[in-house]
Specification:
The complex is a heterodimer of chains A (284) and B (314). Chain A contains seven helices and 16 strands. Chain A folds into three domains: 90 residues, Beta Barrel (Elongation Factor Tu (Ef-tu), domain 3), CATH 2.40.30; 116 residues, Nucleotide-binding domain of ferredoxin-NADP reductase (FNR) module (Rossmann fold, 3-Layer(aba) Sandwich), CATH 3.40.50; 40 residues, no CATH class. Chain B has one domain: Aldolase class I (TIM Barrel), CATH 3.20.20.70. Chain B contains nine helices and 16 strands. The two termini of chain B are 36 Å apart. The model of chain B has no long low-confidence stretch (mean pLDDT 94). Classes of the chains: A alpha/beta (284), B alpha/beta (314). Bound molecules: flavin-adenine dinucleotide, flavin mononucleotide and FE2/S2 (inorganic) cluster. Flavin mononucleotide sits at the interface of chains B and A.
């Protein structure tokens, strides 16, 4: 992705709205005028834990308009639970906006947006930008079960077609969203995707078979979220514009593959060089 | 009554003089640049750079991080471009930092420590050297130096021989008697000691039935290790007279004070920055308030005062 010239900062925000779906997904609306103005599709925020003790939590910026943004939370552990429990009026400090978002300029007409679970959080802003610039898009949206599918209407309102898949078949296609994408067989120019990594790998495979490039928003455990700790890396082609400058690997390379393959890739930081990468440049 | 809110927080680590006693932990703060949008670097004492080795290293396979109760497990594996590339492309830009810059050197042999220290220490952009003889994430070799008194002594002597710049040696908590190692390292010519590096640990994914880290084992940091770190400082402070840079889970001034009262002259903040980049500034302002409220004119007055065995910088 092209590096974005953004000016991240610590923003003190306030919860102004809280929605909880039947499946326990929580959408926090925040008063955050600066972030709303600055954020680009695919960028994320690091949420400072109100109780300290743990690293901040990476969250995609779901909506951004009228001085407000929202975050979509799936509760999977202690930090996401703490954030999901915030009520209207609570303060939440965010480091934002962070990362290089999607390269929307590179997308032509008829774009497939692929989202799994709360990966949907990173799909609405690109959808809005695409439709605003007159490009068509279609959303392929997968979740574990019908109740976990949220906010499809926000996409439908934009005039975007939505196809859903559930793991248990309680709604839409019974199976993975990537299978749905494959079966649909439409000649999408470029894919953009977001969600857990097995899904992203599958999207990358489908893109390769169709001879198109996919932009994938990756997730990994973050610590700093700002490029300081090198904890969130993914292997990418040494020749990628997103590859950090790095000399050829040497005998000091400490070995989880052979030295030859080591010389072809380097580790890039998902938080800094990403979180969006071109699927054909990933070595995972 | 108006409180005196500007007690003296200055500290000297050998010839390294810092206006405020906060160092940003190696590997946790990049080169400072990464945190500049979120923290005023002029208000921190020093940034300790990511450890650099003689040859480039790709680092460990992923995942490299796991969040654990009040802590963080990491196994980065010293990903770095190697000293030659570092000198040619990275070091020059450190000159613009408004705080002190401490280079961190890691190695796999005594000769590595001597070579990298010498190459790095001659650069004006680098104000002091920290010897990382305690990295737990690079197989057995990396930490051997901090766990064996003879090797710790040899690495320290080798680095001491090639530079007159302030030399901080970073000790491992993963030893039976950290005070004994500290004494040997002091004797070998260290100007200060960093206490402690991460504590070895592991987390297992019970669904996948495999360790959560790609490297299996990792180093634990954050509030979970603070009591271990405070005790290590306490013990080391009763064994050496050189200043100690206390670290392990500091997120507030009160956390930092535990280290100062145990005998540390300065503190380092690593993982705390991941929680909130404002931690270092909160620590200094909280220290000022604490000292002012107790009528202390300087931080020095309270260092080691909870520790009857404290020897104190000579
Ligand atoms: C760029 C980016 C954007 C993101 N956007 C969003 C978003 O918009 N919305 C959202 O909800 N999430 C998002 N995430 C993911 C979110 O950051 C993580 O879910 C969150 O950090 C988890 O924190 P936690 O403390 O709640 O869970 P953790 O305790 O850190 O656990 C994380 C995962 O590990 C598993 N785990 C923990 N311990 C164990 C164990 N012992 N054995 C097996 N598994 C274990 C948990 O079940 C969970 O799946 C994003 C991540 C990134 C990197
Ligand atoms: C992600 C990460 C990377 C680290 N890398 C290094 C390193 O390269 N060299 C080093 O001497 N210490 C390294 N450390 C150790 C820290 O500098 C610090 O000593 C330790 O984490 C304890 O302090 P803390 O709890 O404040 O983080 C690293 C720690 C973390 C969490
Ligand atoms: S999370 Fe620290 S470099 Fe990405």
């Amino acid at each position: 992705m092209r590096a974005l010239a953004t000016s991240p900062a610590i923003h003190e925000t306030v919860v102004v709205d809280r929605r909880e779906t039947l499946s326990g997904i929580v959408i926090l609306g925040l008063y955050a005028p600066e972030i709303a103005r600055l954020v680009r599709p695919g960028q994320y925020a690091m949420a400072v834990p109100p109780g300290g003790e743990r690293a901040a939590t990476a969250l995609g910026v779901y909506e951004a308009r009228d001085e407000r943004i929202s975050l979509m939370l799936a509760v999977v552990g202690v930090r996401t639970r703490e954030l999901a429990n915030l009520q209207v009026g609570a303060k939440l400090d965010l480091l934002a906006p962070l990362g290089n978002g999607f390269d929307l300029e590179a997308l032509r007409d008829d774009v497939a947006l692929v989202a799994g679970g709360v990966g949907l959080a990173s799909m609405l802003l690109p959808a809005q930008h695409l439709t605003a610039s007159g490009r068509r898009a279609h959303l392929y949206y997968g979740a574990s079960t019908a109740e976990a599918l949220v906010d499809e209407s926000k996409f439908a309102e934009l005039g975007i077609g939505v196809s859903v898949a559930t793991d248990d078949g309680t709604r839409g296609y019974h199976g993975f969203v990537t299978e749905l994408l494959e079966r649909d067989g439409r000649a999408h120019d470029v894919l953009a995707a977001c969600g857990p990594s097995p899904m992203l790998r599958a999207v990358g495979r489908i893109a390769r078979l169709r001879g198109v490039r996919a932009q994938l928003a990756l997730e990994e455990t973050f610590a700093c979220g700002v490029g300081a700790c090198w904890g969130c890396v993914v292997a990418i082609d040494r020749s990628s514009p997103q590859a950090p400058r790095f000399p050829q690997a040497s005998s000091a390379w400490d070995g989880h593959a052979d030295a030859a393959s080591a010389s072809e890739y380097v580790y890039a930081r998902i938080c800094k060089e990403g979180p969006v990468f071109w699927s054909d440049e990933l070595r995972w | 009554m108006k409180l005196e809110t500007h007690p003296d927080l200055q500290v000297e680590l050998g010839a390294l003089r810092l206006r405020v006693p906060t160092l940003m932990g190696s590997g946790c703060y990049g080169s400072g640049e990464e945190y500049a949008p979120f923290a005023d670097l002029a208000e921190i004492g020093a940034v300790v750079l990511k450890s650099v080795t003689r040859l480039p290293r790709l680092g460990n396979p992923t995942p490299r991080l796991a969040v654990t109760p009040s802590g963080l497990l990491n196994a980065i594996g010293l990903q770095n471009p190697g000293i030659e590339h570092y000198l040619a492309h990275d070091v020059a830009k450190f000159a613009s930092r408004p705080c002190a810059v401490v280079g961190s050197v890691a190695g796999f042999s005594v000769d590595d420590y001597a070579y990298v220290t010498q190459r790095l220490a001659v650069r004006d952009e680098i104000h002091a050297i920290e010897l990382n003889i305690s990295c737990p994430n690079v197989g057995s070799e990396g930490e051997t130096f901090a766990c064996d008194a003879n090797l710790a002594e040899a690495a320290t002597k080798a680095a001491r021989a090639v530079t007159a710049k302030p030399l901080i040696v970073k000790l491992s908590p993963n030893v039976t008697d950290i005070a004994a190692i500290a004494r040997v390292v002091e004797g070998a010519g260290a100007d200060a000691l960093a206490v402690i590096n991460t504590v070895r640990g592991m987390a297992i994914d019970v669904d996948r039935r495999e360790p959560r880290l790609g490297n299996a084992a990792g180093g634990l940091s954050g509030p979970a290790i603070r009591p271990i770190a405070v005790l290590a400082v306490w013990n080391v402070a009763a064994a050496v007279r050189i200043p100690i840079v206390g670290q392990g889970g500091i997120e507030s001034a009160r956390d930092a004070l535990e280290f100062f009262l145990a005998g540390a002259s300065a503190v380092s903040i690593g993982t705390g920055n991941f929680t909130d980049p404002r931690v270092p500034l909160n620590v200094t302002s909280g220290l000022r308030t604490y000292l002012a409220q107790r009528g202390a004119g300087s931080l020095r007055e309270i260092v080691g005062t909870a520790n009857p065995g404290f020897l104190g910088p000579a």
